[in-house]
């Protein structure tokens, strides 16, 4: 049985106010490659090369996806010398990926 979501007027007003930024975030992450990048980053920071290897994608493709995720402030970069380490910028995304894993991968 599906449990109903119960909201009062105050909750509904808050959801209405947050709907645009949430929709933008969902748009930003709604590509299979970006989903996989974020899934890996939810486990800890990684370099572009490590993401390339894990996903079997070309460096340019990984970099393009990371650029989109950085523009949306979903990932952050930490530089050490010439190396760039990427990680999730907002803990809410990690929570979302934990939920997605529970709902869709552990069935």
Explained architecture:
The protein has 107 residues and is an alpha+beta fold. The chain has a domain at 32-105: Arc Repressor Mutant, subunit A. It has 5 helices and 3 strands. The protein has helices at 9-29, 32-41, 48-55, 59-71, 91-105; strands at 46-47, 75-80, 83-88. It has a 3-stranded antiparallel beta sheet with strand order 1-3-2. Strand 2 and strand 3 (83-88) form a beta hairpin. The chain is elongated. The relative contact order is 0.13. The model has no long low-confidence stretch (mean pLDDT 93).
Q: Keyphrases for this structure?
A:
elongated; 63% helix; alpha+beta; 107 residues; Arc Repressor Mutant, subunit A
Strand and helix layout:
Layout: H1 9-29, H2 32-41, E1 46-47, H3 48-55, H4 59-71, E2 75-80, E3 83-88, H5 91-105
Antiparallel strand pairs: 1-3, 2-3
